[in-house]
Amino acid sequence: MRTVSGALLILAGEQAFSHAHLIPFPHQLYAQTILIPFSLISTLVGIAFLVIGWLSERKQS
């Protein structure tokens, strides 16, 4: 479950980053101040969840 959560957080971070660059001029500054830090935090937390999930959910032989 942690792996799926990590993958979804990485996808949310990627979407936030791309939307920060697609918003037109009048609101671009506000969007970048909110969406770019969110994308960075979301991606880092997603990578952490992905690695922790991969390490804890391996098959134990």
Helix and strand layout, with pairings?
Layout: H1 2-22, H2 28-56
Helix pairs in contact: 1-2
Task: Explain what the structure shows.
This protein has 2 helices and no strands. The protein starts with a helix and ends in a 5-residue tail after the last helix. With 61 residues, it is mainly α.
State the gist of this model.
The protein is mainly alpha-helical and 61 residues long.
Question: Distance N terminus to C terminus?
Answer: 20 Å
Rounded average pLDDT: 89
* Count of β-strands: 0
Instruction: Write the element-wise H/E pattern from the N-terminal end onward.
Output: HH
- Measured as a percent range, the helix fraction is over 70%
Which sheet architecture does the biggest sheet show?
none
- Radius of gyration, in Å, reads 15 Å
Low-pLDDT runs of 5+ residues are: none
Envelope shape:
rod-shaped
Strand content: under 5%
Q: Would you tell me the structural class of the helices and strands?
A: mainly alpha
Tally of alpha and pi helices = 2
Short descriptors:
61 residues, mainly alpha, 2 helices
